[in-house]
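Supplementary Note 3. Input sequence used for the single-chain structure prediction.
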Amino acid sequence: MQKKNVIKIIVDVLMTAAMPILMSYMLAGAEIHEWIGAGIFLLFILHHILNYKWISALFKGKYTVVRAVNTAVNILVFVCMLGLMYSGIVMSRYVFAFLPIEGGIAFARKIHMLCSYWGFAFMSLHLGMHWNFIMGMIRKMTKVKKSNIRSIVFKALAAIVAGYGIYAFIKRGIADYMLLKTQFVFFDMSEPLIAFLLNYAAIMGLFAVIGHYFLAVVKKLSLPKKQGE
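The predicted structure, written as discrete structure tokens, is reproduced below.
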């Protein structure tokens, strides 16, 4: 496998692993949150550099429904990342504390909450929509062939994770944060960090499953119908 593809997988794995930690904020610590946030933004830039061919072809060629959906999600992720970087710099007390920024914290907090939860959802959708591609590259790296039994096991695990993700999404009131019904995130400081991370990993899995099967349905509906159907 090409070295570039290996780097792509490493970057994507690091970004995916960092997402639940970013959402833990108070449990992980504000300073750690800022450093990881800055790190994931650098990884995001590297991700786009590695995928420059996709960006250069953005305004070229015909847009199918599948391509339009993929592009829309990518743009939404990009917008959320820009919002997070802006608001993160304004509110920073550690990484960017040296910058002479005054005021605007209240507005930045709203932007940060919106972009955090919507960005988390869109990045998870993005992951699910590219799952087949990612697994294909991993199979090339490990030289593991497709297996029907393994596929069934993975689908069963995905269903379990998505099911628990629905429970965690409702229990933690994620919809309220996404709709700005509350502007402050509640953290149970007695909750073990690992329990929090597993809950958010399940929510990430839920959106990834939604993205994966949503794109599969779009692809199926986009196929030309056979005569007689």
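The mean pLDDT is 88. The first helix runs from residue 3 to 24.
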